[in-house]
Design a protein that fits this description.
The structure is a single chain. By secondary structure, the chain is of the alpha+beta class. It is about 25% helix and about 30% strand. The chain has 2 helices and 12 strands; from the N terminus they run H-H-E-E-E-E-E-E-E-E-E-E-E-E. The strands form 2 sheets. It has a 7-stranded antiparallel sheet with strand order 1-12-9-10-11-8-7, with no helix packed on it. A hairpin with a 4-residue loop joins strand 3 (about 105-110) and strand 4. The longest helix is centred in the N-terminal third of the chain and has 46 residues, at about 25-70.
């Protein structure tokens, strides 16, 4: 073989090595790919249920927050007019001395008869002034306990030094009918304005004097009695 033939043969063997695939390398690569595929499938199998559980837990958490949220308080009036109206609790038929002349307030119908509500100034056995409300048959200004309307007549309220000395809000079965209220105020007061918890106004009307003080009668909301007042 000449030198030219030998060189040509060596070149052909080198090209054949480049073209011929490396079977060992290809087989190893195929094995690696087959091993990676199951791992991906296992991740997918576990990942889907885990994602569903996270969605459920998130929904429950949001629902719990919504259900446990404290609702905002109801809107209140922007301003609270006047000042707080504080009235003493009425006393039913307390011992009284020296009752004054009764002042008629309003008429109302009982089950069988017509009645009149009266305001009376009196003092208790200790000499403390009282505003008393009683109901008697219409046309009568005085009567015994048996002639009074209901078991709460008379009802008496201690008198204070406030501009509104005392007051009584009417009630079913009381000596003043429901929807009415009477107030004893300082003699210098010319106007008495009353406000309920919603801020609504009730204008009181002067109906005379009782002792040294003035007497006012008002129409009020039975379910929302006055809680604040203003005088002028």
């Amino acid at each position: 073989m000449t030198d030219l033939e030998r060189k040509l043969a060596e070149a052909l063997r080198g090209q054949a090595g480049e073209v011929t695939p490396n079977l060992d390398t290809a087989w190893a690569e195929q094995q690696r790919r087959q091993q990676r595929a199951p791992r991906r499938r296992r991740v997918a199998v576990w990942g889907a249920p885990l994602a569903a559980v996270l969605v459920v837990l998130t929904s429950v958490s949001i629902a719990t927050q919504v259900n446990t949220t404290v609702p905002p308080p109801p809107p209140q009036p922007a301003t609270q007019p006047g000042q707080e109206l504080v009235l003493a609790k009425p006393l039913i038929s307390p011992p009284m001395e020296h009752p004054g002349e009764p002042k008629a307030l309003t008429d109302f119908a009982g089950q069988t008869d017509a009645w009149t509500s009266y305001a009376v100034d009196a003092v208790d056995t200790g000499g403390h002034p009282l505003l008393c409300i009683e109901a008697l048959p219409k046309g009568a200004t005085h009567g015994s306990a048996d002639s009074s309307f209901g078991i709460e007549s008379p009802s008496c309220v201690p008198v204070s030094s406030s501009p509104v000395r005392a007051g009584y809000v009417g009630k079913n079965g009381g000596p003043l009918p429901e929807g009415k209220a009477v107030y004893l105020v300082d003699p210098a007061v010319r106007q008495l304005r009353l406000y309920d918890a919603a801020g609504d106004l009730s204008q009181a009307k002067a109906v005379g004097t009782l002792g040294a003080d003035r007497l006012f009668l008002a129409d009020v909301n039975p379910s929302l009695p006055p809680v604040r007042f203003d005088v002028s």
